[in-house]
Each structure stands twice: as structure tokens, then as C-alpha cells.
Amino acid sequence: MGRTVYAEEYLLSYLMSLMRPDGYTIGLILGQSTAQKDYVVHLARTPPPAAKDVIEETLISSTTSIHSDTTPKYIKTINDIPDTWVADHAKHVTRMLPGGMWVLGIFVIGPGDSFNDNNSVLRLKSVVTTIRKNLGSNKYLYGNNDKENLILNFNSITQKFICKSLDIDTAGMLKPAEWKFQAKATKWHQLETCIGFDRLFVIPLDKNPDTLKKQLQDILKSISETVNSALIVIEGEHRSPDDAVEAIGRRKKDRREMKSNDSNSIDKTLHASLYVPCPKIPSSNVSLVSCSASMRLVGQLVSRTFVHQKASIEEATTALKQDIMRSLASRLEMHWDSLIEEENGSPEENVTLHEPPRRVLVALPQSKVTLSDYLFPGEGPQEALVSLQELLDLEVQESSVQKELELQADPSEFYEDNEGETAPMDRAKDPTENNQLDLYVIALSLAFLALVAAVLLHQLY
Amino acid sequence: MAPKLKISSSVIQRLGKLKNPSTCRLYGVIFDDSLLVLSFSLDVSNTYNSRIFQLSLPAEIYLCGVLIVDGEEEDIYKAFKDVDVTDNPLLLKYSTKITECNIETFFYIHQKLEIASFEILSEYDIWQKFTYIRLEANLSLNSQRWNILETIEEARKNIAAGKAGFYLPKGNVYLLGEDAVDTGNSELLNLSINYEGIGHSKHDVKTPPRVVDAFSVSMYLKVSKDRLSDEGVKYAPVIQHVKREFDCLEFQVKIDALAFVRRDILTTTLYSTLVESACRNLRLLERAVQHELSVHKMDSFKIPDIVHFRPQNIGHLLTFIFPTNEETALEFRRTLHDFLALPRNQPYFRNGNIVKFQGDMRKNEPLINPHESVPSPGIVDAKVALVDGLYAYYHYMQDNFDDNGWGCAYRSLQTIISWFRLQGYTEKSVPTHNTIQKCLVDIGDKPYDFIGSKQWIGSMEVGFVLETLLGITIKINRVSVGEEMASLGPMLESHFATQGTPIMIGGGVLAHTILGVAYNETTGDIKFLILDPHYTGVEILPTILSKGWCGWKTKDFWKKDAFYNLCLPQRPVSRI
């Protein structure tokens, strides 16, 4: 039996709006996939490569940039689909998807049935393969699901659509899939959590300095190990992985005689907590590491994920973990991509604050599912609107950008003192540290000032 | 209403050993509407007091009152102020001058002392009602510069603030917060007694097992924030990159904390108990680290280990972290001996005394004190004297070493040496057959080719090895014919009462270990508690007991016409 794909009804009219008489439009299918079913939350047209706007620079990869000058504004035949361009689009869009949602595949709108033509089929398969390859390049993006990919062909003449699924593992065999447009294809469970990071990563003195990118990748690796080892508890209830998300909160209600106004529980946000195990060790130990530098990851990461109505606890927790890692990986990737040159040049002591972009959430129209965008310091919600427009073909109001979940850090807090927050006042009797002395001096001066003030006051009154 | 008062029989026994007027502190656990007094300490030191000592107690055991020995209660009201756990502290007055009714108890209720009656619970009764929970976890921390103390303190505060979660494999229970009551799993834990693991059959044995059957708990730390909580920073993750050479201290902090809980404790109560146990552990650690920091250079600084003890009659486990400096550690042990009114001539807090947990026992590790599960000897009006403390049962074929037919005396010797280890008199490992043979060659008792041979050894050799390897003096008692064994009652009784060590008996025939004696002075009826090293099976207590490898034997056990040599190891004095 083939896969069944449920898509929100309003997406059909979106497809119709993309029809053109003389060419093809390609785009991405976004949503969640399960063993047998896929739930499509959004379809996003891949923007035409030649468009001149801000997004172009970041979207375009060096290999396609030369090519892009000659590419027309629309695609004449299936064979003209620029696969690396679409793959790059897929990567940008993946960053915006909550964990547990993926680029499920591609859609093609044009005058013809691509599946009837061998060359077209080969081309479409190759586009999907290129997307998968590109998404696999940063594993913490969790860009590829382990299910099949979808290819939807929408014939602009007959207005018929055919969907097939492509299993990369079985030598690229195409299987028929049933595509259904439906209102409220699934009810989504919304899960939320907020991770408070505060971890110090040190760079040992005897280690050759890595590039910043490598250092950030090491941080990602370490955080990933932590996140993946974590126990996730939803609404304070520990449950078996096979239990349904729907069951959460039921036990509570059974006992409390189910309040009548509490029935619409599916619309409620489920709060998840992450617990990291602290496995026992044979004995305590201490090691002294001489370091050349330190990197302190600090701040809060807000995660919001959605799982389909019948999802299991395991699906939910996997989605959540992937969301945290995808979000962190996206920011760091965007950050190192944005740096013009490595800043390893200056050997003298200094403090650098790396401010990766922060996450904002935007709800899809007619759905509670939110997608993310990332704003660099200084950017505002209007920047989010631009990328939503370009990458997701979405027109949204500035007011629907939820931008207060994660705030922008105040850099001065990190620069004000080289010791700063990371090294609170030292109480140990270490003669090599003279900070303590400084503080005594300050304390004494303050005491002296207070005394002077007291004397003055006394004399005045 | 006044709580019901229960006192552990171990407290009564310890009271009996007090000689001088003193003011003491009482420790106990409160459950239902009762207070159960488990132990007491003496006020002996200005630097070590009941507040610090409380950190060494399993969670749920608290300072609960004052004990006055032969004295006036002048400053008890001040002392009562230290009691946090109840509004009704206990006053226990004990008199060494009289023997009857020498204990008076009062609860302090509404500014008045009210006489309370009490019930004595045996250690066995207590063990049936309560159990230990052992939380073992690890905190991976690092600190820039030397603020290791602050780092540990912060970890403790996080745990105290509800950041910890716990998992109890028994029953597959997660404890994730005090409000766990809302999530529906507030059922009874029922940490019932696991008779199988400890080899107790349900009926005949009335002592708690020597190997502690604690329930293990693991820990989690929450990295997500609570809904609506204001904690921590609100800004998106940033990375502060500081390029400066510095020393970073990376450390793994071991948590090994105990709680003393009712076997039918509710899961909801257990959460805060476990938090308290972890916090006591970390506070203990902070004190230890503070001390180490004050005496060590940073590059030689170590975090000392957490260790648990259960000195005889103390009534509960104790958790300590000893200074790494041996002199200071000795000083601390002396303080503890005085503080707990333990004799100074016997070690209680050395490595060998560290308590054994069922969960830490290796597979096929020699059993500890199998004789404690042996039914009584069945002699009317018998005087009974047994081995004191702990030993491990060594016998043929252990450690995959085939000594069947020749190694019985070696095994008996190993059992004896294990006694000296477990009593803390030595830290030398139990010697192998080869080490024993080498020792006898070294002292010139045997020719060189003795090493690696399968030759027997006798009581004399056992004595030589004990003297040589452990520096222990021994007495040899010669019995020319087996019949004479029946007359050894008083001698053996005196040995076990004063020395308390296992005896090796050999001679013309097979070697055995004697662990006790029971005899009736008038009828002359006598039985010997024998531990037989000729057992070749695996460490299964019920088999060992039912087949008589450890049990009471009549005088017919000895061959009438054979001669015997008894090797009686003497307990060393004053090595605490």
C-alpha cells in the first residue's frame, strides 16, 4: 500500500495560483511524515533564481551563480530545474521548520504529466537526491527524514495532480501515493520547552587553534550529546515511548472528575522538560587544564514543535530534540556563514561576543503551526517578513511575528569586565590573584566615603 | 498531642557503656505520629558538633533531642533550639548510678516538659520497617580559576531548587518534583525486603543483614526552564569567546547519598527526601573541599571520596569524607570515636570498615558472615560466644583456583585475614595461596619448591603468616585428642568475648574455622559453630546453610583420637 498524503485544503488554491501557461514552477512540500502518512502544512514555491533581491546573495551558491545569469525567470522544461538551487532553498526552509517537520519532497506545476516522461522522472529524482545530499551536510539540522520523499505533479492544463513517493534506498523506485486535500488534515499537538544554556567550553593550551567554525561545530557536537541523552517529560508525566501524546493529562483528569470546560485539551500547549542523566562514577576526580581560551554558551533557546494527532511519545520527544538541535545548528551555521573573516589573528587577550541570530516564530495562515525565522542583532520583524515572503512565499503581518520569545543580548554585559560574569569573585586563598585585594581596596574606599559622608552630615545638622 | 516515642535497642545498649556525666545529642526519625530515636552523640569538641554531624546522617534522620547523663538539665532549653525537625524536642535522662528504670523521657510541649513513655524497637524491627535509599550520581563541573567551592555550591542550590529528577529502577519510578502529586504516581513505593538477595529465610533470623540492601536511585538534572519561571537569562544563546590563558579546573563530583526511609514511603514524600540527601552529601563535600583547598597546592588537590560506615550499635549508616592527609584523617577519626562514644582501641572508620552494599557485590564475591543466618544451637541455658564483626567466607575453588583437597587451611587463613581487613585493622589484601606460600618460604619455614606446590599447611603456618604479613600475635592451643575439644567451652568463650576473631583449627586432619561456641556449664553440653572451607560450590547461602557448610556441630564433629592445633589470632589494640 502506498503512502497517503494529507494536505490542507487551501493549499490547492495556492497551487492553482502558481499555474502559468508557458512553463514550470517548482517548490517544496513541507510537513510531517509518519510510517504510512504524510501531513503537509505548507507548500513553498522555490523563488526564481534571477530575482534581484537581498535573499539572492545568501541563497545562491558559488557553483550556480554563473549559471543563474542565463537562467530565465521561469523554467521552460523539467530538465531546466536548477537542482542545486532547489536544494539550497530546501536547506534554508529546513532551518525554518520546527523539529519533526521536514522538506517532504517537491512539487512541480506545469503543462504536462512529468511522470510519463522518462527524462523528466530522472530529473525529478535527481532534484530530490540533491536536496537530500545538501540537507545531510549538517547532521544537526536533521534535514532528512528516514521516510520516503514525495513528488507531486500538478498538470496545469488538466488540473489533475499525481503524487508519487520516492524511496532513495530501493534504487529510486517510484511508488504511487494518494494525495488528499482536506480541511484540518490533522489536529496538531503543540509542545513547548525552553532550554537554559550556560556551559563553558575550554580550548586547551596545547591544542592547535581550530577555526571558529570548527570550534562551534565542537560545541554543537557536545550539546547534541547532552540533548540526545536527555529524558523528556511532557507535562511532568513520564510515559512509555509507545504511549500516545493524546493520553497525556488524561490520568490527571480521570482523578479530578474531568472538568467540563477542560475538554478541548488538544488546543493546549504541552510543556516539556528535559532532564539530563548524571550517571554514577567510581570516584570524584579533578583535572587541571591549561587553556588558551574559553567559549561560554549562554542564553535561552525556545523550542516549539508540533506532532500529528496520533503521534506517540517517542515521535514527540524525537521532534523536540531535533528542534533544539536544528535551531541551535541553524543559528551557528548562519553565524559562521555571516563572518567575513576568521578573527583568530589577534593574539592578545580579548573578549569577543558571538551573537548568532535569535529565533522568532511565525504562525502559518489558517494553522497553529509556527515556523521559525532567525534575526541577527539589529534586525527587526520586517526582515523576517522578507525571508518568509521569499523562502515560503508567505505574506504575513508584522504583528504575527512572535519576536519576544528570545530577547537580544546586551553585549555590554559581556564586555564590561574581562572577568565578567563567567568568573565570580574568587574566595580561594590564591596569592596569585589580586582581585580580592582590589575589592578590599574598593570596599575600604567605600567605607571611607561613607564615613566622610557621615561626618559631613553630622556637622551639617 | 505528644508523639509516640520509640527507642532503638542499640541506643539502650550504647547507654549501658556510658560512664561519665555528659550532655549528648539524640538523633532520630519522625514517622506517622512517632519519634524513633536511633543514636546519640557526645558533646566533645568545639569544632565538631551535631550540626556538622547531621550532614553525615542519612536523610530523614535529624537531631531530635538532648540526652543528659547523670546531670542537671540546666542548658537543655538552649540545646532544644538546635532541633529543627520537630517543635517537641525530646529530653532523655539516663542514670549510670541505678540499674532499674534508669531512663526517663520527656517531650518538650508548650514550654513544658511532659513525661513520655517509650517502646524499645530491636534493630531487626527497625530494619523491617525502614530501608536505605542510595542515590549515586555524578556532576560534571568546571570552573575558571579556583572557584570550585562556588561551583559545587551552585550545583547544590540547583538541586535544592527542584532542578533534580530521580529514577528508582525498582518499580520503574521517576520522581521529578515535589508537585509530582499532580501527575498521578503517588502510590506507595513498597520497598519490601528482598529476602533472596541477602539469603535470609523469612522466619528464623532476627538480625538485619550485614551487607546493606539499599535501593539504588539515579539522578537527572533539568536543563529546561519551568513554565512561567523567571529564572536565568532571557536572551537568545550567545557565545562569549574569551582569549586569555587561564587554568581551568574540570572536575567530576561524585554524589553517593543515603536516605533512611520507611519501606512503605509515598513517592511524593520521597522526592524531597532525596533532594535533602543529595544536599547533605554536597555540603559534606563542600566542607571537605574547603579543607583540602586550605592545605593543598592546586596541582596536588584531589576531591576525597565519600564513604559510608555502620559501626556496631550506632543504629544507622554514617557518611563521611575523610581528609586526604593521613594525620588529619587520624585526628578526625579520633574526634568521631569520642563524639560517638566508641572505644579508641578499635578501628571503626578505616577503609576496611567501609560498609558493603548488596549492589556493589561482585558476582561470586565471598559471602559476608553466613553464620548470621544459622539457627540457634539448641542447647538449653547455653553460654554463647561468637565471632565479633565481619568476615568473608573463603572456601575451595574460589576465584577459579582449584585447591580441592589441599587448600583448606589456606582458605581458613584467608577467612581470618578478611576479618582483620573488614574490622579495619589492615588494608592488606587477602593473600592468594601463592602469596601465602611465598611468605612461608621467605621466613625460612619452607624450602623454595614449596611455592606453587599443593602441600598442606597447618595451624603453625597459619600463625606464621598472620604474624609476618599482618603483624598479628597469635596463640596456639594444642589438643592432644579430639575428645578434649568438649572441654574447651570456657576457653573458647573467653576468646570470642575478648578477641572475637575467627579461629583456625587444624592438626592431624582437615582444617576448619571456628566462629563460635555454645555450652552449658552444668550439663557440659557443647556445640561449635563451624565454617567449613571444603565447600566447592558457588556462593549461594541457602545451599551452604542447608548442607551444613556453616553450622553448629556437636563434639562428635572432632575425631576422637586425632590431635588438633588451634590458632587463635589476637585482636590488636589501639589502631584507629
TrEMBL record, chain A:
<dbReference type="InterPro" id="IPR029454">
    <property type="entry name" value="ODR-4-like"/>
</dbReference>
<keyword id="KW-0812">Transmembrane</keyword>
<feature type="region of interest" description="Disordered">
    <location>
        <begin position="408"/>
        <end position="431"/>
    </location>
</feature>
<keyword id="KW-1133">Transmembrane helix</keyword>
<keyword id="KW-0472">Membrane</keyword>
<protein>
    <submittedName>
        <fullName>Protein odr-4 homolog</fullName>
    </submittedName>
</protein>
<feature type="transmembrane region" description="Helical">
    <location>
        <begin position="439"/>
        <end position="457"/>
    </location>
</feature>
<dbReference type="GO" id="GO:0008104">
    <property type="term" value="P:intracellular protein localization"/>
</dbReference>
<dbReference type="GO" id="GO:0012505">
    <property type="term" value="C:endomembrane system"/>
</dbReference>
<comment type="similarity">
    <text>Belongs to the ODR-4 family.</text>
</comment>
<dbReference type="Pfam" id="PF14778">
    <property type="entry name" value="ODR4-like"/>
</dbReference>
<dbReference type="GO" id="GO:0016020">
    <property type="term" value="C:membrane"/>
</dbReference>
UniProtKB/TrEMBL annotation, chain B:
<keyword id="KW-0833">Ubl conjugation pathway</keyword>
<comment type="similarity">
    <text>Belongs to the peptidase C78 family.</text>
</comment>
<dbReference type="Pfam" id="PF26560">
    <property type="entry name" value="UFSP2_MPN_insect"/>
</dbReference>
<feature type="domain" description="UFSP2 second">
    <location>
        <begin position="229"/>
        <end position="359"/>
    </location>
</feature>
<dbReference type="Pfam" id="PF07910">
    <property type="entry name" value="Peptidase_C78"/>
</dbReference>
<keyword id="KW-0645">Protease</keyword>
<feature type="domain" description="UFSP2 N-terminal MPN-like">
    <location>
        <begin position="1"/>
        <end position="126"/>
    </location>
</feature>
<feature type="domain" description="UFSP1/2/DUB catalytic">
    <location>
        <begin position="383"/>
        <end position="567"/>
    </location>
</feature>
<dbReference type="GO" id="GO:0005634">
    <property type="term" value="C:nucleus"/>
</dbReference>
<dbReference type="InterPro" id="IPR012462">
    <property type="entry name" value="UFSP1/2_DUB_cat"/>
</dbReference>
<dbReference type="GO" id="GO:0006508">
    <property type="term" value="P:proteolysis"/>
</dbReference>
<keyword id="KW-0788">Thiol protease</keyword>
<dbReference type="GO" id="GO:0071567">
    <property type="term" value="F:deUFMylase activity"/>
</dbReference>
<keyword id="KW-0378">Hydrolase</keyword>
<dbReference type="InterPro" id="IPR058757">
    <property type="entry name" value="UFSP2_MPN_N"/>
</dbReference>
<dbReference type="InterPro" id="IPR049387">
    <property type="entry name" value="UFSP2-like_2nd"/>
</dbReference>
<protein>
    <recommendedName>
        <fullName>Probable Ufm1-specific protease 2</fullName>
    </recommendedName>
</protein>
<dbReference type="GO" id="GO:0005783">
    <property type="term" value="C:endoplasmic reticulum"/>
</dbReference>
<comment type="function">
    <text>Thiol protease which recognizes and hydrolyzes the peptide bond at the C-terminal Gly of UFM1, a ubiquitin-like modifier protein bound to a number of target proteins. Does not hydrolyze SUMO1 or ISG15 ubiquitin-like proteins.</text>
</comment>
<dbReference type="Pfam" id="PF20908">
    <property type="entry name" value="UfSP2_N"/>
</dbReference>
